[in-house]
Amino acid sequence: MRVWSKMLYATACAALIAPLAAQAQHNLHSAHGQQTPVATAPQDAATTEGPQDVAYQADVVFTLRTSIADGKLVFIGVTGEITDQVNPDLRVPEGAVVQINLVNDDGAIHDIAVPEFNVKSDNITGKGAATAVVFRATKSGEFEYLCTLPGHKAAGMFGKLIVGEPGQKASLEGLDVAMDPTQVGTPVGKREAKQLTVDMETTEVVGLLSSGSTYRYWTFDNKVPGPFIRVRVGDTVTINLKNAEDSQHIHSVDFHAVTGPGGGAAVTQVAPGQTKSFTFKALQPGLYVYHCATPMVAQHITNGMYGMILVEPEGGLEPVDREFYIMQGELYTAQKHGAPGHQEFSLEKLLDEKPEHMMFNGTMDALTGPYKLKAQVGETVRIFFGVGGPNLTSSFHVIGEIFDKVYNQGSLTSPPLTDVQTTLVPPGGATMVEFKLDVPGNYILVDHALSRAEKGLSGILEVTGPENPEIFHSKEKIDPNSGH
Length: 484
Ligand SMILES: [Cu+2]
What we know:
The termini are far apart. This protein has three helices and 29 strands. By secondary structure, the chain is mainly beta. It folds into three domains: 162 residues, Sandwich (Immunoglobulin-like); 118 residues, Cupredoxins -  blue copper proteins (Immunoglobulin-like), CATH 2.60.40.420; 143 residues, Sandwich (Immunoglobulin-like). Strands 20-18-22-27-24-25 form a six-stranded mixed beta sheet, with no helix packed on it. It has a five-stranded mixed beta sheet with strand order 15-13-10-11-19, with no helix packed on it. Helix content is 9%, strand content 37%. The chain is globular and about 80 Å long. The longest helix has 31 residues. The protein binds copper (II) ion. The site of copper (II) ion has 6 residues, from loops.
């Protein structure tokens, strides 16, 4: 009984929290320009210090719920390390953008404020109502968070925000499974069709999902997505699929570019330590997904077993200055998003299609950290974008840019769509987009179903070069972390 109510609670929480960031973001946007009563200090907002500039996404997110126990009022941690702690210490690095979500779990009126950083939420009254504050922790030290309703602090609703102390993060060992998006192979150019061989190995490895968490990935060649394979229409391609000695499962590969049984999966169910092969002719140009197709297929895919093959048309693609390879995926873990340590697979969440984590190129910070996309003003960029999934359709969008061309559904023989903001890419599907860079800045890659950004789904395209005031200018300072 207890367990059930707790589980239901957690589910309700997850549903509530998703929209919070967007709401908090909106509040802050307003606070930038005109003063609003939300998320600003009541007394001096108009004069000096309002909330500091924040980035597009918070660096650290905490969720607290309100509770009444033994006549005392308290905050209780809901996710991650602070789960079930009463008035938990919230530890953050100096300079981090911090988001604190608050869920009303007792039905009394509450809010949450961090006076030192000039933030205060609106009041939440009903049980299940939620709010959030977002701020940048600009100085180190110990500060207070509290409920500002009369008498509530005295009744126990306060805790410590500790800025600048290194957290006691366990140092985790794991492979870097994130695929470098610049690994796009060599364009086929003007060559004739030929025979070629592709060797691939399926592996099961513990990889770093984020700096503080790991997951047992199943991969092609230890990367998620697997290698970008580039051939020409008319090529005859032999695939040798090896399953690593230390695998515990059978694996296979289904290429959507293959005409034949199972796209190759019918002849490549490979036991650990063995290799199987097949040969196919690339009949139709296009950008195609490949994936493992061994039962339970959805589990093999979510664990990381997907990639893409580009079949270039005769004469190749038009040259561009930069090409990038990006795939969207989902992870279904027993632990909630943000929890530290090793994350275990949850079959129940997979079947419910409710992922805890969503990633570009395999890990939480792949495209915002080590593999940020880089380009210069004046350059043309091409992105090969696919969805491994296994379940969710992407509304692919680059904040601050417009796709000049979209090769819809990865079709290279239809004329491209032009001047597109957001494009749909289904699981097991792909698109090729191209655009020219006119203005420097950080452009954020997202699925415009933006609750997913809160689960880790974002990337950065960093564009450097001369300003272009005719196209964009402002007297305001550009936040380097923000989507300009
Ligand atoms: Cu597999």
